[in-house]
Amino acid sequence: MTWLRTALAEADPEADVDQAIIESLLQPVDGLNASESHLEKTLENIKRQIAGQQVKKRSLRLMRWPYWAAAGILFLSLFTLLIRNQYPDTVQQLTKHTVRQQILPEELPPGGNRATLRLADGSLVQLNDQQSGIIMGDEITYANGQPLQSGKMGRNQETNDLSKVMLELSTPVGGMYQITLPDGTKVWLNAASSLHYPARFAQHERKVTLKGEAFFEVRKDIARPFKVLSQGQEVQVLGTAFNVNAYPDNKLIKTTLVNGRIKLSNENPAIAAVYLQPGQQSSTNATGIIRVAQVDPAAFTAWKEGLFYFDETPLAEALRQIGLWYDVEVKYSSSVPQTHFYGRIKRDKPLGEVLEVLAEGGLRFELVKARDKRVLFVTAQP
């Protein structure tokens, strides 16, 4: 309130206004703890102060407008505090839904190489975004051979069994990263995904746990099957290349085989195991039922090559991929057409260029920042 005192003094330093009352009105008030009685008393002081000013000359009235402005500002401030005190939830909801800052889509850059590595002792390492991946060995290094700062894996000194030393590679929304596992298997992790794995595989099997999406190139080892666990599904292979899409909020787990042969099973004992051939994709629902279809694997693995690949892709799925890569939340109006998309778009482009292509499907986009989130509103073109 110092600025308000200064304005009053500069306006009329010799005014006969009761300065004691003005000072009392300018005392700081804790908006969250102010009681109704305190606010009401302060408002009464304002009213008495205004009523007591007997202005006889027009020139004096013109000179004293800052006092009336000060009183008005205080009245509005105190009224706002009273409302906030009595209806905090309503004020919070209004603020949440009305404060928006428009963002130009062409200014929003794409995702990139971003990931963290959780070591066995629980410590978290932020991986270098100028690197594309890490390699597991006796120590952890980046793909170019540069050693990781915390390359000792943070293992518990109580055990020398590296198959029980667990690590976790995680990517955020808008991130991807690659890892070469101890057996030489390569894994590409898509956005908002995590891979839980041992520092060294056991003698008779190789097992990892996936949340999200990843592409695997499994090093062949007949003596040790490679297993991927994801939300109750198990994929077992000896040596092959395949993609698993198992985001927690998806209704289906989709496994796409590029080459080789894989066996799928799940926690439902009533469902028989299924074997996939190259070019086939399995879709497993929440009850464990598995359906198999023939697909073009490139459409489901192109993200690894830096592409959005749309092949009769529904609008919701196309925008889900875009939202994950550009870190935006997508909201639709009820009038949005249920269209499908075809074609390939590079994932290294700004969001604006991608939306220009999708707009040809009769869509209109508005990107805003609401609190700490970026929201993409999708409506039909008029």
Structure explained in plain terms:
This protein has 382 residues and is α+β, with helices and mostly antiparallel strands. It has four domains: 97 residues; 93 residues, no CATH class; 101 residues, Jelly Rolls (Sandwich), CATH 2.60.120.1440; 75 residues, Phage tail protein beta-alpha-beta fold (3-Layer(bab) Sandwich), CATH 3.55.50.30. It has nine helices and 24 strands. The strands form three sheets. The chain has an 18-stranded mixed beta sheet that branches. It has a four-stranded mixed beta sheet with strand order 1-23-24-21, sandwiched between helices. It has a two-stranded antiparallel sheet with strand order 20-22. β18 and β19 form a beta hairpin. It is globular and about 80 Å long. The two termini are 49 Å apart. The N terminus is likely disordered.
CATH class label of the largest domain: Mainly Beta
For the biggest sheet, the summary is:
18 strands, mixed
Number of strands: 24
What is the radius of gyration? 31 Å
Number of helices: 9
Give the integer mean of the pLDDT values: 80
SSE class: alpha+beta
Overall shape: globular
Helix-residue proportion: 25-40%
Tell me the number of structural domains. Answer: 4
CATH architectural designation of the largest domain = Sandwich
Distance between the termini: 49 Å
Enter the CATH topology name of the largest domain: Jelly Rolls
Oligomeric status of the shown chains?
single chain
Extract low-pLDDT stretches: 1-22, 28-35, 54-70, 73-84, 86-98
The amount of beta strand, in percent, is 25-35%
